[in-house]
Amino acid sequence: MRRIFFVEDDLSLITGLSFALEKQGYEVRIARTLLEAEKLWPDGPWDLALLDVALPDGSGYDLCRKIRQTSDVPIMFLTAADEETDIIMGLDMGGDDYITKPFKLAVFLSRVNALLRRSGRASCSGTELNSNGITVQLLKGEAWKDGTRLELTAGEYKLLCLFMENPGIVLSPDQILNRLWDCEENYIDSSTLTVYIRRLRTKIEDDPGAPKKIVTVRRMGYKWNTGEGGGL
Fold first, then answer.
1. CATH number of residue 211's parent domain
2. Domain boundary among 59, 91, 119
C-alpha cells in the first residue's frame, strides 16, 4: 500500500480528500500544523507528500525545504495562491506539482496518480491510456483517435504518451526535453520540440489552429487539457 503524507489544516478538505485517496487504495497520514508535520515525517518512508502552503504555524514551503534535505519524495502543493511567482517559487524549491484551490476531485486524483507514476512509485499494470478521444495501446506501441489508428513518428508517440500520462499538469519545455532524451544520448532541442508539438496537434486535434488537447500555458509550457477550454 502506497503511503501519502498529507499536511492540511482545513478539516472539510482533509475529510473529503483523505476519504477519496483511501478509496483509491492509499494509506493517508494527516498533520494539520507544521509542528505536527515535523513530528509525523520520521514515520516514513512516504510515496507522496501533499503540502498545504498556508499553515497556522508556518508555510508548506518551509516544510518542503526541510524534506528536500533528506528525501526526493514527490511533493504536490495545495494552494489558494495562483500567482505565477508563487507557483514558480514552489517548484524551484523542490516541489513537483501544484494544484490551486478550489479544484475538482477527479482532477486532483488524476494528478496524484500521474505524479506517482512519474516517480516510479505507482503500479504500472495498465496497458492503455485513454483521454479526449485518444487511446494509446502501450504494449503495441499504437495510438488511435476515435477508432482510427494514428500514424505517428517515434518522437510524436513518446510526446503523446508523456502528455497523456500527466493530465492537467503543466510541463515546461525543459521537463519535456529531459523526458525525450533518446537512446543515443542526443538531445531533442527546443526548436525540434516546437515542430513535434505542431505535428502532433495536426494529427490529434480536430482544429490544430485552436487546440483543445495539447494547450499552451503562456510563459510556462504545455499541458494535456482535461477540461473543455482551448489553448494557443
1. 1.10.10.10
2. 119
Question: CA–CA separation, 48 vs 112, rounded Å?
Answer: 8
The span from the CA of 230 to the CA of 78, in Å, is: 24
Residue at 229 is within a domain: no
C-alpha–C-alpha distance, residues 31 and 124, integer Å: 29
Q: Helix or strand or coil: residue 117? A: helix
Q: Is residue 230 part of a domain?
A: no
Q: Which of 27-31, 88-92, 186-190 has the lowest mean pLDDT?
A: 186-190
Which domain covers residue 39, as residue numbers? 3-119
For 189, which DSSP code?
A: P
Helix/strand/coil (H, E, C) string of 33-81?
CHHHHHHHHHHCCCCEEEEECEECCEEHHHHHHHHHCCCCCCEEEEECC
Do strands 3-7 and 27-31 pair parallel, antiparallel, or not at all (unpaired)?
parallel
C-alpha cell at 93: 524549491
Judge whether 204 and 163 are in contact, CB under 8 Å. Answer: no
- The pTM (predicted TM-score) of the whole model is 0.54
